[in-house]
Write a structure and sequence with these properties.
Blueprint lengths: L1 H16 L10 H8 L1 H24 L5 E5 L9 H10 L5 H10 L8 H10 L3 E9 L3 H10 L10 E5 L9 H13 L6 E7 L13 E4 L19
Parallel strand pairs: 1-2, 1-4, 2-3, 4-5
Helix pairs in contact: 2-3, 2-4, 3-6
Bound molecules: magnesium ion (MG).
Magnesium ion (MG) binds next to loops.
């Protein structure tokens, strides 16, 4: 009996010794996007505003004569899980770990985007996606998009990634290409009326009358259009 009790005491001590230490605290922006309902509410509000804008656009234009261009990461797909993993393990971004994350195809949609895309299509607009994900990640991206309910033809007509290694991160040339791509698909003379993104580079320098709608990504990546980590702009 004494041996059995000793074993129990030893086992209890061992359990105490091997308790997993608490995960490191997340940075404010990542914590906000990952854990605060405020982030989702803000994203939905931006998409609602963009939806009201395209309703006004559609009322004044012919069907199929206008388009919106959306960025993908932190605009259509929410990759905060990738960032949480990095901060939990103490790692930092690498192209390799990002590539592996995109291969998982498990990013959920940013709140509000599904309804917005549906609205654009229902109102007679086109949706184009211009992203700096690598061309080698395009198929996984398209499958991830399909898994969350956004499919080519039904929901978007153009998906332009960034060709590596020489394709520039600057999206200006790809933005300009979108009307031509729609023209060869049978929709000539399309005008881009809005851009949606989370970075300053998700819109052209000259908007030429188009509107830009900014999704707050918690200041996690790049040159965010909402530059304050967490709520607020
Ligand atoms: Mg982005």
């Amino acid at each position: 009996m004494r041996i059995a009790l000793s074993c129990l005491a030893f086992a209890a001590a061992l359990t105490a010794c091997t308790t997993t230490p608490p995960a490191p605290a997340l940075s404010p922006g990542v914590d906000w996007v990952a854990n605060s309902p405020g982030w989702a509410e803000e994203a939905e509000a931006v998409y609602a505003e963009a939806g009201a804008y395209v309703e006004a656009v559609a009322a004044a234009r012919e069907p199929k004569s206008w388009a919106v261009i959306l960025d993908v990461d932190e605009t259509v797909l929410n990759n905060v899980e990738y960032q949480v993993r990095l901060e939990t393990t103490g790692d930092t971004y690498t192209p390799e770990s990002w590539h592996a994350w995109t291969a998982e195809k498990s990013a959920p949609p940013v709140p509000g985007v599904i309804d917005f895309v549906e609205k654009v299509n229902a109102l007679g607009g086109h949706v184009a996606l211009v992203t700096n994900r690598a061309d080698s990640e395009q198929l996984w991206t398209e499958e991830n998009l399909s898994d969350v309910g956004l499919t080519r033809h039904d929901d978007f007509r153009v998906l332009l990634t960034r060709a590596r290694p020489y394709g520039p991160s600057d999206k200006t040339a790809r933005f300009a290409l979108v009307p031509s791509m729609l023209a060869v698909q049978g929709y000539p003379g399309v005008e881009v009326v809005a851009f949606v993104g989370d970075n300053e580079g998700d819109k052209p320098e000259d908007l030429s009358g188009a509107e830009f709608f900014c999704i707050d990504q918690g200041a996690m990546y790049g040159e965010p259009c909402a530059a304050v980590p967490g709520p607020g702009r």
